[in-house]
Design a protein that fits this description.
The protein contains seven helices and no strands. By secondary structure, it is mainly alpha-helical. The protein folds into two domains: 115 residues, no CATH class; 83 residues. The radius of gyration is 65 Å and the shape is rod-shaped. The two termini are 117 Å apart. GO terms for molecular function: dynein complex binding.
């Protein structure tokens, strides 16, 4: 663009003629040629286009908006200068303008080829980006799977912690019960010791009574010799003593057995 207001206005008119709705549509070659001829004729009728200005205006169309060529897709290759319709001297006042248009057409062809190469490079770049995107998606899936596994492991660890806490509480209760049972066993042991001591005292008394009874039995013969009249009474007394002694012996045996069982139980 030259910067002059008239040329800028003409370029805006040309842009509007090429794409009235600014939709980025692609043009075929005949339509492009028709629009260019109409625009050049319009400029000539206004008296604002000279041979040099015509040469500068055409390439400015693509230079001002290179992004449009990428969005519309590759433009059709302009025809060589020889394929442009030959106009009469009335439509084109000078051969210089025709030569300029041919030169601009060749420049447009070169620029279109460059746009083709840029489009191919853009497609290659797009393919590389798509491949990188696929790799990133695969990495994202792997990361999500690892995250899910870590989340599951965390939940399992929390469950194990809860189970361990429950077992610890149960172990504490069992220890408390064991301490209480130990205290009860100690109390029962003390009671059994007291009972054993009482039985031992009773045994001593019974043994003393047995000794006395034995002494009485030993003195029986002397008493019978000295007191013949008391034989029957002594016989009766002896029988009574025998009965008592037998009962005492049985009781002593029973107490001994009971004491032995208690000692065995205490030893266990």
């Amino acid at each position: 663009v030259t910067g002059q207001s008239s040329e800028e206005g003409q370029l805006r008119v040309l842009r509007h003629m090429l794409d009235p709705k600014a939709a980025g549509r692609a043009l075929d070659l005949p339509t492009f040629h028709a629009v260019m001829r109409e625009w050049i004729t319009s400029c000539q009728q206004e008296g604002s286009v000279t041979g040099d200005q015509g040469q500068n205006a055409v390439p400015c169309v693509l230079a001002t908006s290179p992004g449009h060529a990428l969005h519309r897709g590759p433009l059709a290759m302009p025809a060589p200068a020889s394929e442009y319709p030959q106009t009469s001297s009335k439509s084109h006042p000078s051969s210089t303008e025709a030569a300029g248009l041919r030169s601009r057409a060749e420049q447009l062809a070169a620029q279109n080829a460059k746009l083709h190469r840029d489009a191919e490079l853009a497609e290659e770049l797009n393919a590389c980006l798509a491949e990188e995107m696929a790799q990133l998606k695969a990495q994202l899936r792997c990361s999500q799977q690892a995250l899910e596994q870590a989340r599951a492991a965390t939940e399992e660890l929390e469950d194990l912690k809860a189970v361990a806490k429950g077992l610890e509480e149960e172990n504490s209760e069992l220890r408390q019960q064991a301490r209480q049972l130990k205290r009860q066993l100690l109390a029962e042991g003390c009671g059994l010791r007291e009972q054993i001591q009482g039985l031992a005292a009773e045994k001593a008394d019974l043994e003393a009574q047995l000794c006395r009874c034995t002494a009485l039995l030993s003195s029986r013969d002397a008493a019978l010799a000295q007191a013949g009249q008391q034989v029957e009474e002594l016989t009766v007394a002896l029988g009574e003593y025998d009965r008592v002694v037998q009962e005492l012996r049985l009781e002593t045996t029973r107490l001994r057995n009971q004491l032995g069982r208690m000692q065995d139980a205490w030893a266990v």
